[in-house]
Amino acid sequence: MTIAMDRDALNAFLARDFPQVAGSYRVESVGPEGLVARLVVDEGHLRPGGTVSGPSMFALADLAIYCAILSRIGPVGLAVTTSASIDFMRKPVAGVDLLAECRVLKLGRVLAVADALIHSEGLDEPVARCSMTYSIPPK
Questions:
Q1: Which domain of life is it from (predicted)?
Q2: 34 closest CA partner among 73, 78, 75, 64
Q3: I want to staple 83 with a disulfide (CB 3.0 to 4.6 A). Which of 11, 112, 123, 133 is the partner?
């Protein structure tokens, strides 16, 4: 597997093309086994009951899987989510960053399928699992 974009290239791409995620989401590592992305949890990500909101976890999974695919195909800004499924399995720890560990399961010319496990940093048990399919536009 060839890495088309490393951590620094992906974070630069996000800062340039998606400035709305700056400061909250970032790519931590990229390698042949997959990608790890971080949600820097702050008050804006919390919901009543002292937990990270579902939309924040979904956004982390979507961003992480998008970046995992771009790490393989390069900066294709118009690759889009076509299907998504997320299972919320346990309550994340409030005030603790979340990490999404992603794997690209299939990378075709038109579609890519990937999954992500989301953990509260420092804990082994996942808080959510997500599977997504992305459409890759023609060159």
A1: Bacteria
A2: 64
A3: 133
